[in-house]
Amino acid sequence: MPIGNGAMGAVIFGGVEQEVLQLNEKTLWEGGPGSKQGYDYGVPPEGDQVVALRKVQKTLAEQGSMTPEAAAELMGRDIKGYGNYQNFGELEIDIAGRGEVSDYRRELDLARGIATVSYRRGGVNYTREYFYSYPDQVLVAHLSADQADAISVNVVLDIPDNRSATFTRKDGLLTVVGALKDNGLIYEGQVVLRAKGAKVSSGNRDNSLAVKNASSVTLLFSAATNYRQQYPDYRGDHPHRRLNQTVTKARAKSLAQLHDAHIQDYQALFGRVSLYIGQAEPELSTPELLAHYGKGDAATDRALEALYFQFGRYLLISSSRAGSLPANLQGVWNHSNTPPWNADYHVNINLQMNYWPALVTNLAETTEPLYDFVDSLVAPGRVSAKKLVGAEGWTLFLNTNIYGFTGVIAWPTAFWQPESAAWLMQHYYEHYLFTGDETFLAERAYPIMKEAARFWLGALVEDQGALVVSPSFSPEHGEFTVAAAMSQQIVTELLRNTRAAAQQLGDQAFALRLEAALAKLDPGLRIGGWGQLQEWREDVDEKDNQHRHVSQLYALHPGRVISPAQTPKLAEAAKVTLNARGDGGTGWSQAWKINFWARLLDGDRAHKVLGEQFKRSTLPNLWDNHPPFQIDGNFGATAGMAEMLLQSHTGHVTLLPALPSAWPEGRVTGLRARGDLTVDIAWQEGALTEAVLLAGRSGNYALLNNGYQIKSSDSGRPLNTRLEDGVLRFALDAGKRYRVTLKEPKPAL
Ligand code: FUC
Fold it and tell me: Which end of the chain, N or C, is surrounded by fewer C-beta atoms within 10 Å?
């Protein structure tokens, strides 16, 4: 069971005789400046690589394509010091007890953000509670029993051996200080043990604390490093003072105080959205729910779906809070020191997908670490733009670490992905669209979008009379060519969004430059010989290609160019492509397909793919399985389920756009639509019974009309609406609620 507060995380194993808490601190990374291997941010310090790029561009202009291996041979680089996200270590808690164990139960209460382990042993009922507090920045574990003196524990803090570690113990406080051998990054961890009815002793090892015959024991843990999110050195002060302050403060609080502060903080976020889709309180355990999915009764299947949706929100709150790094490939729950893909930030879909549910499921605060992180990439990204592409502005490629890696790697099948920065810019602009926050647009989004757009104004080349991306590589297969669909779609979106922002903010000169480029830019939308949306400029897609990436559909999702109503032919082509790709793939690939089908307004198909994700790509604790565990699929699927219930990317709000027949009745509250709108929806027999709109600011809104009437909830008076092309237009007052109902309720079946 994972718990976390963004900066730190822990996985609770829940053993009876020995509890293991596997610990993570987000900034604990090898590599980067000071790495034994050397480090250059992925960019050669001397000279530049633009010559290699020009060679590739020339070959592509002459021959149309080249193999990824040939391109990598010229442009790829063997990198050093990229590093790995590290596991912090483990707290091993040996728990004394005798006799048979019964009534064992493990629970993760999503409504409170609290994990529990309980069982009965030797006539005693034992309970352990765990939470990771954001306000107090500590992990809290509380062990109790229904008999006095029943708790005896020996706690050991186990630190991996790829770092130095010095332990000290004093008055119930165990401290470890050390540095990673690779790069000298200093870390510190502090464990506090306090006991009711007994004394805390030092235990039998230099890294242990112990308690004998207490009635309850509370353990606190916190950790920090001297990482600082600042190019080029990425180092700040020794973590001791900060950590000491945190732990001293937390220590002075009672369990109830820590608990209440956590609940209040957590519920303020989690409690904003509720989802009922016909689920019954399940009798089955979570792994059983998963194993029985699609075989048992409908109410049980709905229970898993609703749980999975909220689990995604729980994971996002637990792995992404202001003041730390964004959720990485494993959120903040990595058990290895050489994790798959370094547990880094892949930016050809993965990091972006992590944040898909943030806005629509009413967790805008969780995006703060993403913007801090991406902002911090601009300085190194400028060097990359210049030295690797010969352009102004900033860029990055396939993947990045926490040390400003913005260069290229030598891995042929994915390394060249300069559209990544443009893709990340979508999040900044969407944040503005969802929140309507003009200060955010002016001060945070526009400056970085403008620099990303400047990169593309310099990097695009002319070919066959159009502006194109060259070389262009559709993740993560096929040849290197010119103008693959994804490249063109992403760059088009960036230039359009930046133009809209420029116009709004009065930067006319730049808006005009973008306008001129957009007029010549190939939008990357072509329908091919078998009706498919082409992945490449040439019509070479193969019908039996089931590759996990479906990048040519970027314009459908997460972009907002293709929609059944506004671009029916492209939507049809997207459908043909998706049918050919099939409903399988890695976890995140299936999660993406849920979103695609929702955008194509096919709720049943979206629902079917969700079921596939449960069957093929979900671990018993409901973590997404790439394989192995990779958190993006959790987040992507949560976003997809929201997308089935509410959409707002086409200039108006659509209620229940892709409701599957498996969810005939239900109710969702607190979802968010673009325009700073909070939406509750209730439905029965597949038809709306009532929606409530709550606008964060006064202004004009639009709603796809399905025979609706809108009334002010206060006065009961009907709202003035104007019907235009099937869309209802109206004005809402900030802070007031409005009820949407059907003018003529659906006749009962
Ligand atoms: C992308 C995907 C892989 C994997 C990796 C972390 O490169 O193509 O499937 O998810 O990111």
Answer: C
